[in-house]
Amino acid sequence: YAKQAGKGTFCYYSTDMEAGAARLLDLQRDLRRALANDEFVLHYQPIVAGNHTHHLNAVEALIRWQDPHRGLLMPGVFIAEAERFGLISEIGEWVLDTACRQCAIWREQGMLIPVAVNVSAVQFRSQGLVVLVESIMRRHGLPPHMLTLELTESVAMDDMTHTLMMVTRLRELGVKIAIDDFGTGHSSLAWLRQFMPHELKIDRSFIEDIEDDPSARAIVNAVIQLAHALKIEVVAEGVETIAQRDLLQAQGCESLQGYHFARPFPATELEGYLRSHNPLPAPENGI
Ligand code: C2E
Ligand code: MG
Ligand code: MG
Ligand code: MG
To answer: Which parts of the sequence belong to the EAL domain (predicted)?
Structure first.
């Protein structure tokens, strides 16, 4: 077929592939530069109480890349590549350190805001993660319960023996574990019973449909009840409407996160958010 299609077609195809490969090389080079030049930033999205107070329970740290040429890039366009290029451990370390430093700064200012950090599969597979988390918490003088590590279901399912070992050690450290995007993977109930995370974050795809689709609503309600029976807290992701919020609150979902409450924003905007949404939480030691 290639022969029939002629030289032109082949050339066109090959040029296209080269362009693709070149783009990937560019991205790899740019990601390295971004690390060296400190071009990554964290935005923080409020996670609020699932009751009428909607008090701030925590924030989730979400990475963005302030590329000098392309502007602000979202994680969807570079995290998978960073994993492939073997850069995710370094980026992940930067994320953990930056989020914990920010949490410590807020704490000094009298704002006790626990932070949740996303951990990639590659990071979770490395033995070094526990020591890294421990040293970062110590560096910033943070009590471990101020940090939650978010793992996706597929990461946590990857190698059960390793997962259980890691989770046990992290639990001993005192940091919390959340299962992110819950419902999109294929974890079994037996596995959940062994794993016993502190939190389940129900994936946005279910929340999106709870108003109109009785089966999505049934699944969300069942997950909330199951989690509660296991003493696991539930966070609903991607809450965008009042109706979704009210349905989740009626089910006793502990925490809600989504554009209805706030989009992710830079750390500097947290104080303003708190001022307009709820009074500052009481300082820890009466500072
Ligand atoms: P995630 O951990 O499930 O984070 C939630 C994503 O949903 C965020 O997208 C957030 O901005 C978005 N979101 C929140 N509320 C709503 C809503 O009401 N509606 C809609 N449509 N979207 C909402 P973002 O920031 O683009 O992050 C995408 C994913 O990238 C994250 O999903 C996480 O898996 C990954 N990610 C983000 N930051 C990091 C990081 O520092 N390290 C690693 N390894 N992955 C990260
Ligand atoms: Mg997350
Ligand atoms: Mg999530
Ligand atoms: Mg998600």
So the answer is: 24-278
